[in-house]
Automatic annotation (TrEMBL):
It comes from the Bacteria. Keywords: Hydrolase. This is Thioesterase II family protein. It holds the Pfam family Thioesterase. Residues 23-244 form the Thioesterase TesA-like domain. SUPFAM superfamilies: alpha/beta-Hydrolases. Belongs to the thioesterase family.
């Protein structure tokens, strides 16, 4: 079952009685459907809201955002209409940056998230210079293949590739042109997750997320590359559940 909340939010397993909500933001080229298994695993204890960026699936005719901060502005505005319960944010890769910026906006408005889960992304203060979005289609496709996060069957179909490349390019531009604007540290707990062989982020770059919160912080390192979470989904979901439960009891996660 999929329940849409406007164009932006997908609820695959609505849990209106859940005490808390988890807002999930995908990687470059990713879609809300990536989080269907997360929603299934956490329901009905957590109401999972998966953000659908413009430029993919049923929104494929819309222009993708090419600026992470503007995307965060739009997501934060959408959340104002669907929240009302304590919420946490989970983002992978580009989604981690957007989740961080959304958390900043929420806290500026007086809403402290229950937790911020950031996966597969360097801390905002640790910039890497990358220009994949400026390459031609073949170069962009080679990068997508290297990251091993997209179904190879999709990438072997020229028509599908033609449809998905604009979203990938826009997302890569958003990720690669993002520049952290210094400001107050978050108050919410932050859990950083990464793969030990991720070519996009070192363990030290993931550890640096500690600098961006005055609340509890932890780093968990898994075997694997940029999409380590595909092989460790159960462990990642268990951590999310543990942290959200700990916060509900006003305790710091173990």
């Amino acid at each position: 079952m999929t329940v849409g909340t406007g164009e932006w939010i997908r609820r695959f397993h609505p849990a209106p009685q859940a005490a808390a909500q988890l807002v999930c933001l995908a990687h470059a080229g990713g879609a809300a459907s990536y989080f269907f298994p997360v929603s299934k695993a956490l329901s009905p204890a957590v109401d999972v809201l998966a953000v659908q960026y413009p430029g993919r699936q049923e929104r494929r005719r819309e222009t993708p955002f090419e600026n992470a901060e503007l995307l965060a502005d739009a997501v934060a505005e959408q959340l104002a209409d669907v929240t009302g319960r304590p919420l946490a944010l989970f983002g992978h890769s580009l989604g981690a940056t957007v989740a961080f910026e959304v958390a900043r906006r929420l806290e500026a408005a007086g809403i402290t998230p229950r937790a911020l889960f950031v996966s597969g992304r360097t801390a905002p203060s640790r910039h890497r210079t990358q220009w994949v979005h400026l390459g031609d289609d073949e170069q962009l496709l080679a990068e997508i293949v290297k990251m091993e996060g997209t179904d190879p069957a999709m990438l072997s179909d020229p028509e599908v590739v033609r449809m998905i490349l604009p979203a990938f390019r826009g997302d890569y531009k958003a990720a690669e042109t993002y520049r952290y604007r210094p400001g107050p540290a978050l108050r919410c707990p932050v859990l950083a997750l990464t793969g030990d062989a991720d070519p996009q982020v070192t363990v030290a770059e993931a550890e640096a997320w500690r600098e961006h919160t005055t609340g509890p912080f932890d780093l968990r390192v898994f075997p694997g590359g940029h999409f380590y979470l595909n092989q460790h989904a159960g462990d990642v979901v268990a951590l999310i559940r543990q942290w959200m439960t700990a916060r509900a009891g006003h305790r710091a996660p173990p």
